[in-house]
Amino acid sequence: MSAHQEDLLGQLSKVARLVKRDIDVALAPFSLHTGQWALIKAVAILEPVSQVALSKYLVIEKPAVTKTVTRLETLGFISRTGSGRKRTVTLTRQAHDIFEAMDQAVQAAHQRFLETLSNDEQQMMGSILTHLLATHRPDEQEELH
């Protein structure tokens, strides 16, 4: 790996940490953090959904999904039904009731973060990130669609 490539990926990691920090601030009024929000948002998109599918969709390990789902279930955001491989996850009424407010807070944080980029720069960045995701996790993408 060249020094330029290493620097590029290092910068990408730093940007991801900054975005996470801003989203955590936006989610503080809901007593949630970025990882929990990512899971809630994924469930909202995919529900009903298995924990295995969530793991693949979010590109995180199954034990981390189980831990986060359990915590969100305790907080009243997630409900699990069924058992074994048939077990699915859905949002509770409480989560549905405040989902829009949470999503708006996160979207506002996204807008503030990206406001210095033109629409063309945002589209270019989106295309590059989509390409990287498709290249490095094609199996997960196919299983979800």
Automatic annotation (TrEMBL):
PANTHER family assigned to the protein according to its UniProt record, in alphabetical order: TRANSCRIPTIONAL REGULATOR, MARR (PTHR42756), TRANSCRIPTIONAL REPRESSOR OF EMRAB OPERON (PTHR42756:SF1)
Name of this protein = MarR family transcriptional regulator
Q: Which Gene3D superfamilies match?
A: Winged helix-like DNA-binding domain superfamily/Winged helix DNA-binding domain
Query: A Pfam family in this protein?
Result: MarR_2
Superkingdom classification of source: Bacteria
- Domain named HTH marR-type is located at 5-134
Q: Write down the species.
A: Exiguobacterium antarcticum
- Which keywords belong to this entry? DNA-binding, Transcription, Transcription regulation
